[in-house]
Design goal:
single chain, alpha/beta, Rossmann fold, Four Helix Bundle (Hemerythrin (Met), subunit A), 3 domains, four-stranded parallel β-sheet, 15 helices
Length: 457
């Protein structure tokens, strides 16, 4: 199996040192509802995990939650809820949506707020090795001391800084030095005791600490979206390998392409997002998964409802073929080995899911061609179902929830009334509306830009 390694910019044979593959995938910052860009990341690495397990590997899969950072604090300030309350609510929604998308649960989901000892120990080690320095309770990493800084994004430090948003702080030794620990400024902000005073960790150090705590010093696969290459993953490598005296942090760095809505990258900060719950209200989880798998994971992909609807139709062909009853009387011996081999060759070539999917549709065509001839289609149908399951496709018919305009209007009105109540601090009355809607199988999710709702299945 060959995988494209962002670190070397080449496809390399994937040969883990033992049967246990250690995979760390950067998770969400749960300050708002997750969007389908997050679904894309989860589906890509779910398929990778499923295929590795299909090949006989045992995968230890770690995915973190960044449950304390500037965005979490800003969201809490706007909503009036605590950071913990916002995190709990959005993590619960995210996990439910991942289950609906048929994403295998990770081995563990560490949360930054629960890993403070390992984070502080890592920072202390970097200070002792003179890779970090403390200024009035803020701790910064010395970028220039990391001589190979920029090796993941394949650019020089000066080039990286030219296109980056640098946090201006005249106390830094160098403008590109990044925060490992931030001292508490506002007493109400989340904070922890440390050797440098009360504060909280920086974003990058959280992942280094959680990855090494749960997977050890050497990770086989470190994954995430291409937007994380710089600065997040670049900084992760720098601080982790500085702490370990240049022992490699991860063997393979895998990054999926960006999801676009029109001409722009989809992101919460741009405000042009489609939430996962919104997509699941309109489409089956298999169609959403199929939409992402029709493009190679490293390529950019543009989201549109028309594109997903076309995958609903394609999905029907696979479902119908998997359930087709034979009408013939002839004993036909089907050789499915070639299909399995073609599928394997596609997936071994850097997870080429478009080519792997073409194998599934070829099997479906053979099933349809032989329905009136063969007295059994079981070998072909079993192979179709088995290979589909490797891609996480369930091949079950999707029953869409039927609503009429008047019922949706009523739900929207109740949510609007609840929003007004929350703004006027009438939380008990607002909660009654929420609880009443839940009894009618309507789930609501609050976020910075308003409230989404969906029917529970």
């Amino acid at each position: 199996m060959n995988l494209f390694n962002t670190l070397t910019m080449t496809k390399e044979p994937f040969t883990p040192s033992n049967n246990d593959v250690k995979m760390y995938v950067c998770g969400i910052t749960p300050y708002a509802s997750a969007h389908i860009g997050h679904a894309m990341v989860s589906i890509v690495f779910d398929v990778l995990r499923r295929y590795l397990e299909h090949k006989g590997f045992a995968v230890t899969h770690i995915q973190n939650f960044t449950d304390v950072d500037d965005k979490m604090i800003q969201a809490a300030s706007k909503s009036g809820d605590t950071v913990l309350e916002i995190a709990e609510k959005n993590i619960a929604s995210y996990m439910m949506e991942m289950d609906q998308l048929n994403i295998l649960r990770a081995t563990s989901y560490p949360r930054a707020t629960l890993e403070m000892n390992s984070i502080i120990n890592l920072i202390e080690g970097l200070i002792n090795k003179e890779y970090a320095y403390n200024i009035d309770g803020d701790v910064f990493f010395r970028v220039k001391k990391s001589i190979d800084y920029g090796k993941l994004s394949h650019r020089k430090i000066s080039d990286l800084l030219a296109g980056a948003r640098i946090e201006v702080d005249e106390r830094k030794e160098y403008p590109g030095d990044f925060a490992l620990w931030k001292k508490t400024i506002v007493d109400t902000d989340p904070s922890w005791e440390s050797p440098w005073g009360y504060g909280r960790p920086g974003w990058h150090i959280e992942c280094s600490a959680m990855a090494t705590t749960y997977l050890g010093d050497m990770i086989d696969i470190h994954g995430g979206g291409q937007d994380l290459i710089f600065p997040h993953h670049e900084n992760e490598i720098a601080q982790s390998e500085s702490f370990s005296d240049k022992k490699p942090y991860a063997k393979f760095w895998l990054h999926n392409g960006m999801l676009r809505l029109g001409q722009e990258k989809m992101s919460k900060s741009l405000g042009n997002i489609i939430s996962i719950s919104e997509a699941l209200n309109k489409f089956s989880s298999d169609a959403i998964r199929l939409f992402f798998l029709t493009s190679h994971y490293r390529d950019p992909i543009t989201y549109s409802e028309e594109n997903v609807i076309s995958q609903e139709r394609a999905l029907e062909r696979l479902i119908n073929a998997s359930q087709l009853e034979p009408r013939g009387s002839t004993e036909v011996k089907f050789n499915t080995d070639s299909y399995v081999q073609q599928f394997k060759m596609a997936m071994d070539d850097d997870l080429n899911t478009p080519r792997a999917l073409s194998v599934l549709f070829n099997i479906a065509r053979e099933i349809n061609r032989n329905q009136s001839i063969s007295m059994t289609l079981e070998p072909l149908q079993s192979t179709l179902k088995m290979l589909s399951s490797v891609l996480g496709l369930s091949l079950t018919k999707h029953e869409s929830i039927q609503t009429n305009d008047s019922s949706e209007d009523l739900i929207n009105l109740l949510i609007e009334i609840r929003s007004d109540m929350r703004k006027s601090k009438q939380f008990e009355a607002a909660d009654k509306i929420r609880d009443g809607l839940e009894k009618l199988n309507v789930l609501i999710e609050d976020h910075n830009n308003g409230t989404d709702w969906k029917f529970s299945n």
